[in-house]
Design brief:
heterodimer; A: alpha+beta; Thiol Ester Dehydrase, Chain A; 3 helices; 24% helix; elongated; B: alpha+beta; 5-stranded antiparallel beta sheet
Chain lengths: 140, 152
């Protein structure tokens, strides 16, 4: 597995690549339902959500977490992610625009691995966090 | 509904998860990830010794299990929330691998919530081994059933 980041050159506070997800739309949720098998009807079935008292369908949390995971694979290379943890704090709705971003908070060597650790978040167009997370990736 | 704590510590029947390229591509498109490493086998071979999977890809496996593979508390689908998800990835997972997953319920507990009323939490873990018997990943998930609908 090729390393994309060099341990020595990383500093605490370094930013990960920022990714913008424009114009979140219902087809995103339908496509993710098919790709992941997550057919919880809250994400595509409008009559179902209205009957549950929710105004409209919203994104699978793991769809948003998947978009955010791209910050890690773009940064460290696919296959070099060792830990990825997310906490869902707010729904993502059709029409939202999301900013996925993160930063390095720690460097550590463990069992011969050089690890970069940090925090991640997804912010909507109102500046509200929808997902917060943390990670560990391998460096060379 | 009273919560059923008898599932705590129970493991499901192990399930098999073949890692297939078409599923990986479909997943990458669904999360709008244009990284060529998911789509170009030559490049993937050079960079990763094979086609890797996105860090959240194992979520797919969570929905592939048969009913007897996942001991669970039956939540009301109208009031379900995904609270947290964690992946610990020990070794690369590549297309062509055949994983075996074993799921278990780690914790079930209740807590008084805010606007959602009383909430029930269920923490599950799925451990994955590859075809060589190596532990490659643990997926840990917290699902929440809220006391009332959560949207809006």
């Amino acid at each position: 597995m090729a390393f994309k980041v060099k341990y020595e050159s990383i500093k605490v506070g370094d930013a990960l690549p920022t990714i913008t997800v424009d114009n979140v739309a219902r087809p995103d949720f339908v496509r993710y339902a098919g790709a992941s098998g997550d057919f919880v009807p809250l994400h595509y079935d409008q009559p179902f959500v209205e009957a549950a008292g929710i105004p409209t369908v919203f994104a699978q949390g793991m769809w948003t977490a998947g978009c955010l995971g791209r910050c890690l694979t773009d940064y460290a290379g696919a296959g070099n992610v060792r830990r990825y943890r997310v906490r869902f704090s707010r729904q993502v709705w059709p029409g939202d625009t999301l900013t996925c971003r993160g930063k390095v908070t720690n460097k550590t060597e463990k069992d011969g691995d050089k690890l970069i650790e940090g925090e991640l978040e997804v912010i909507n167009q109102k500046g509200e966090a929808t997902v917060k997370g943390n990670f560990a990736v391998l460096a060379g | 509904m009273a919560i059923d704590k008898s599932v705590i510590g129970k493991s499901g029947k192990p399930f098999t998860m073949p890692i297939e390229w078409s599923k990986v591509r479909e997943f990458a498109r669904a999360i709008r990830d244009p990284n060529p490493v998911w789509f170009d086998p030559e490049l993937a071979r050079k960079e990763c010794n094979g086609i890797p999977v996105p860090p959240t890809f194992l979520q797919v496996a969570a929905f592939w299990q048969d009913a007897d593979s996942m001991p669970t508390v039956h939540f009301d689908l109208r009031r379900i929330l995904h609270g947290e998800q964690e992946f610990e990835l020990y070794k690369p997972i590549l297309v062509g691998d055949v994983l075996t997953g074993t799921a278990k319920v780690v914790e079930v507990y209740e807590r008084e919530g805010g606007r959602g009323g009383k909430m029930t939490f269920m923490v599950t873990e799925i451990e994955y081994k590859n075809q060589k018997g190596e532990k490659v990943a643990i997926a840990r998930s917290t699902l929440i059933e809220t006391g009332q609908a959560v949207g809006g």
